[in-house]
Every structure is written in C-alpha cells, then in structure tokens.
Amino acid sequence: MSSNNNESSNKQQQNIEHADLLTKSLILSHEDFEKISTLLTKEFDRGLRSTKDSIVKMYLTYVRSLPNREEHGRYLALDLGGTNVRVLLLEFHGPPSLLSLKSSQRRQQQQQQEPKKPPIEIIDSSMKPIPTEIFHGTGQQLFDFIAEFIVEFALRNKLAGVRIALGFTFSFPVVQQGLAEATLVTWTKAFNCPGVVGNDVVRLLKASLKRKTHHSIPFIDVVAIINDTTGTLIYGALQDKNCGIGLIVGTGSNACYVEYLSKIEKWPFNYSDPKQVVINCECGAFGDNHVIDWALTNWDRRLNYESLNLNKQIHEKLISGMYLPEILRRCLLTLIELGIVFEGKTPIELFRPYSIKTKYMSFIDQDNENDENNFPNTRKALADMFNSKNPLFKNGFSDSDVKIIHMINRRITKRSANFVANALWTLAIRIDNVDVAIAYDGSLICLHPYYRSWVEEKLNEFIKKTGIKKRFRLIHANDGSLYGAAIVAAICYREKRPKFIKKRGKIYEITRF
Ligand code: BGC
Q1: Which atom of ligand 1 is nearest to the CA of 248?
Q2: Among residues 174, 204, 223, which one has the least CA distance to residue 76?
Q3: Would the CB of 188 count as within 6 Å of ligand 1?
Q4: What one-character-per-residue DSSP string does 210-253 give?
Q5: Tens of pLDDT, residues 319-359
Q6: Is the Cβ atom of 167 under 6 angstroms away from ligand 1?
Q7: Reported pTM
Q8: Three-class SS of residue 6?
Q9: Which residue's alpha carbon is at the smallest distance from atom 11 of ligand 1?
C-alpha cells in the first residue's frame, strides 16, 4: 500500500472515530430510559388527575366499548391526520337484530354465524391529497374541501336519500365533551390552518357538510370523532381481545390505552358500565415542560427552536418520521463543518430544512453495521439524495462517509424506537393483564426494516431488568385509523340499538338512527 493510501485510510479511520464520539449523545443507556419512564409515569398520573394542569393530557375519548363482532350495517369513515384525506364505506356483517328472534332461533343463528374473521366488507374507499393552497388556507376552506370530497364519494356510492352514520378520525390533540364534540387544542405536525384551534371540529365539519349538500344528497350523521391511535386500538381489538394499547409511529407519534374509570380522577360522570374508557395520551407532548431536556442533543434543541411549534411535542420530535430526517440533516451539517464528512463541503441539498425524506432512513438502516458489502443501500440513498453532477461525488462516496452516515442514521432511528418502547412499557405496567397486545400502525414503524423488532427488544429488556411479568404481542392494525372510525360509528349504533317494545307477546326493535 502506498503512503498516500495509508494516509487516506488513517484519515478515514480518524473521521469514523471522531464521528462516533461526537454522536454518542444520541445513545441513551437503559438507566436513562428507566429514569425517563419514571418521569413519564408522573406525567400520566398528572394527566389523569387534571387536563388543565398537565403536559401529557390523557384526553378522555368517551370510547368505552370495544367491538364484539355484533356490529351490523353500513357506515362511513373519514380520516384526516396527514397530507391526505381518506374516506371509506364499510359494511359489518354481524348478526342482525337477534333480539327480535325467538331465543331458540337466536341461539341457532348465533352458532351458525360465529365468524372466524372480522366480519367486515369494504364497499368502497377513496383518498385525496390535500392541495397546498388548502393546506395553508383557512379552517373553513379545509373543512369545505373535506365535505365536498365526502359528498362526492357518497353520491358515487348511491347514498342519496340515505341516512348514514360517519366516524371521523382526526389525529390532533382535542378536548372532547362527548363522543361527537371535540375542541382542537393545537395543531401538530405540518398543519397550521387558522380558525380551527378553540373550535369544535365536528361542528365545523357538519357546517361544511351542510353547505355542500342539498336535498338529494345523503344525510351524513357525524356520530363520533376519534384519534388515529384510538382507531388503531379498536381495530386491533377485533383481532385480539387482550388489545389494550394503540400506537402510531408515522409522521406524528402518539399512543392510547384502555383505563379503568376508577383510576381516572378527572372522570366527570358516574362509574356506570362499561367501567373503562380509552385514554388518548397525546404523549407526543411529553417533555414540553423540559423534564427530559437532559436527554436531548444540541441537534434536537436546534430543531425544536426552529420548528413551527417551539417547545411543543418534544417527545414526538425525538420519535416521529417527520422529524428524524431533520435530526439527521442537522447532525450531518455539524460533521461537515468539522471536516469529518464530505471533505468539509456541504452539498447544496442539505441547506434546505426538512429536505431529507424519511424513506431514505429506512433504506439506509437496511444495511448492516459491519456490512461486508460496503453499505450498498446507504450509497444508493446518497446517490439519490444528491445531484450526481456535484464534483464532490464524482468518484462516488468515500467508505468513511458512508459508514458514518449509516452509523448516525441508525443511532437516530434506534433512539426513536427506544423512546417508543419506553412509552409502551410505561403504559403496559398500568394494565393489570400480563398479556398485553399492542395494535400499531404508521409509516415509520411499518416500513422500516427493524423498527418493530427494536421496540420488542427494548420491551424485553424492561421485562428482564424489572422482573415484572408481561407478555407483549404487537399487532399490525393496517389502516386502523380508518377502520376504527367506522367501527366506533357501528358501536354507537350497537350500543343504542337495544331498544325494544313488546306488543302482543312479540318483541320489536326500535332503531334510533
Ligand atoms: C397528534 C396525535 C396523533 C399523532 C399521530 C400527533 O402529532 O398530536 O393526535 O395521534 O400525531 O398521528
């Protein structure tokens, strides 16, 4: 090997060691996570006492019943939470009005109809990206756009003249006064439409629907509003009766769980059956009171400082797909400035905030730490991210650059998975059952090659270190946010349904929609 080659490989080794040292702050020890779990428990307790005096709000969702496969009929679901709006028409094939049958007939029918799979049929679904001008427009423009979209969809499905219940998934922090009343507290993720915060979003949707409908149009009854985590949990409960937690790790992040009313000091009603309710934790706000500032790196701090929502959603900023690539970008800029990566020259693409796409992080993580193949995915991702005409990359990417980028990418995604596992653990120990099924969804956890297994690994570490007996089952509740909304609408119907009258010895059911 020539002395030039030797020099270059020494320099590359030095760069790797230097980068390793500088980004160690992205690695938190298990003891750190135990401390973070204790802090989170305190916030959960505070939230269950009072929404006003807490950071992690633990919102009451008023969803108290889970699906029992007796749901029946057609329902609409609407989902708003990311860059698209989605609508779905579902039919549930649970047993029809069993109580209107004689008990022997009822038993016979129940046995015949015992379904093996969730008895759901998708009639139609549609998705529309929210145009930029609507995204940056007023709340009224946003809801009018959504209403127009639903009406179009309803007409396509020949629902004119039909009364149909709709479940609305709205994935932002809301205070609910009932199942179909929800005041937006703050926008999160990239949303910021004026005129919505402080208002009941169900009323806004209903007003827009009224504006966009006329006599020949269906009567769409918005019967419930839920969070995407709640939808995911509800959908998971159809698959596993032990499902106690709903989790989303996508553009945003959050979790919900089923809690006993007796453990919720702020529960405003009596403790009638069912004695439980789904709590939307809004745990993305954990850390907004600075209790985990010690765990943040300077890159996290700068990201927060320059974000749309300063000092809000700190936990979410450490976890979700919207922010992880931005942490990576900021980290890279530091290493470039110190001459450790890209010979100290910044490719122009990296100057623009939020310019790295989340999908690249999943792709890069597919390479292995001690990759004999020389990190092929990382090389491909970099080639895709940067202009190939940049003279800096005319000979491709140096081995040390690739290794360093892979290393910090993985540190960021793994830290995110550890924070998620930590939140799940902190919730799971509040649940009496040893067996806890967790329904999850979201682009990051679903599309990343190892994210889910890292979450499971960390949960097992918690079991081992604490000696607390728990068995976890992670269920992918694909599109649970959408299905969940329809299921909740169907549950509302199911719950209201047992209304009967007896006439001349016969039982008749009165439908209340
Ligand atoms: C919102 C939550 C939502 C989560 C996942 C967060 O930004 O505040 O309500 O559940 O994103 O979509």
Answers
A1: 5
A2: 223
A3: yes
A4: HHH--TTS-EEEEEEEE-HHHHHHHHHHHH-TTEEEEEEESSSE
A5: 999 999 999 999 999 999 999 999 999 999 999 999 999 99
A6: no
A7: 0.90
A8: helix
A9: 252
